[in-house]
Design brief:
The structure is a single chain. By secondary structure, the protein is of the alpha+beta class. It has three helices and seven strands, in the order βαβββαβαββ.
């Protein structure tokens, strides 16, 4: 028996302008729960990029009415035509079910062969390596957590 029973979940994607205030609130709450509260890392979560016209949000939620999102990521489009993936997180109760993998597959399918950058927490860099990302530069501390910049160029 699996430690994490499979619960049917649906993947969603929306442009920033198409998010309802309630949905945006749920996504921000998930990110704050993971990054600020769980990882004990106070940082400026509201950076002004969530509502940019070209920002896309991806999330996974259970197929049960009223359940909050379990995982999310944010896809930013850079002025040079490249992309930046960030704010990838999964709620503690939903980890180990491949939700971050599903989000990454969806985001990368959307951008195709375009250049993509992300800053990975060091312990999860293997997830991104499986999608063709390679380390660029040295490890650095961001808000007290070791990170590395990773790039995918097709």
């Amino acid at each position: 028996m699996s430690a994490h029973p499979t619960v049917p979940a649906t993947l969603h994607r929306a442009w920033a302008a198409d998010l309802t205030p309630a949905r945006l609130y749920e996504l921000l709450r998930l990110r704050i729960n993971v990054f600020v509260i769980e990882q004990n890392c106070p940082y400026q979560e509201l950076d002004g990029r969530d509502l940019e016209q070209s920002t896309r949000h991806f999330w996974v939620e259970p197929e049960r009415p009223g359940e909050p999102p379990q995982a999310t990521l944010r896809l930013l489009e850079d002025p040079d035509g490249g992309f930046h993936i960030g704010r990838v997180c999964t709620s503690k109760s939903a980890r180990g079910r491949g939700l971050s993998r599903r989000l990454m597959e969806a985001a990368l399918a959307e951008i195709g062969d375009a250049r993509c950058v992300l800053d990975s927490q060091v312990p999860v860099k293997g997830l991104y390596e499986r999608f063709g990302f390679t380390q660029q530069g040295e490890e650095f501390l961001e808000d007290g957590i070791p990170h590395i910049t990773m790039v995918r160029v097709k």
